[in-house]
Amino acid sequence: MASRRSKSKAGFTVEHHGRQIHVIKVDATSTKQWEQWILLRSDAHHDSKHCRRDIELRHLQEAVERNAIVLDLGDCLDLMQGRGDNRASKSSLRSGLLASNYFDRVIREAADFYTQKHNGIQLSRQIALIGQGNHESAWLKFHETCPTDNLVRAIRTCDPNSQVGAGAYGGYVHLQFSFNGARKGAFTIRYMHGASSGGVMSMGALDAKRAASWIVDANLIAIGHTHDSMVIPLPRERFRVHNGKYTIENEDVGFVRVGTYKDEFYQTEGMGWAVERGGGPKPLRAKWLRLYPVWEYARGHTKTHHRGVFRVGWDVIDAT
Asked: Does pLDDT of 213 surpass 50?
């Protein structure tokens, strides 16, 4: 798939190089007081009756106010009430989706939701990526049509200036930062929807070490799927050689479980899979990733000459 480029009024340009690689170029005028917000969200299950759309909408409105980049890590759609799905439950079906063209209704309603305006700006202008989750991949397997592609297409039809692209089950988002046209730094996110069942006691924490064992070129690893929420620092040692100088450096990589908008524990009248499983309620939240400049000083050509070295610092904050 050829790369697709479009310019956002929010100040970033998105290039989709197929489904797995997404390059986001951010332009700013100065490093002073600069920061870039990114909303990491997953498992919205938007069409589910148990989706807390009030929280989802508030986060998207905050993304508009912060000029934030929104990355969805999969299971944006629930799609459990279609014909032939053994998980289907009439009590979980939103009344507006009760129709013979159930799938079309889900896509249309979601596209309308994500293209509504806040302070005169469409929410979809901030969304750069919608990844695929196991709910979308299951629909693709049994119905031979990709919900993620359909939703992205519908959003771009409703909002021709949207930059949103369809992601894979996992891939890379590479952010490049330029100030007054001079490129200074980059930050790479390895996103995956997730593969494990989480675990009642570990809550998916063991996946942090598993992911770190094979993911090398990422500053942050972001995962959803288990509906858990956590941030685990993964320090790693790097051996570097620069201009004949050898150093050993500590580098922090973040592992983030994003959370969910689906409340299937308290809104089911004490019945259903989530209650029977005995795992307890899940955190209804997403994650804010804040990027900001950090200046470090390195010795230059002489003992008295020092030069500033720019790098991107980061914080992860709960979006509740």
From this structure: yes
Number of domain units in the chain: 1
Host domain of residue 152:
4-319
Q: Look at residue 271 and tell me whether its pLDDT is greater than 70.
A: no
What mean pLDDT is predicted for residues 290-308? 70
Distance separating alpha carbons of residues 164 and 309, to the nearest angstrom: 33
Better pLDDT: 280 or 135: 135
Q: What is the pTM of this model?
A: 0.90
Q: By the 8 A CB rule, do 5 and 15 touch?
A: yes
DSSP 305: -
Assigned token pair, 167: 């992601």
Report the candidate in 258, 124, 145, 245 with the shortest Cα–Cα distance to residue 191. 258
- Minimal CA–CA distance to 49: which of 226, 267, 265, 279? 267
How many CB atoms are located within 10 Å of the residue 315 CB?
Answer: 12
Count of Cβ atoms closer than 10 Å to residue 14 Cβ: 23
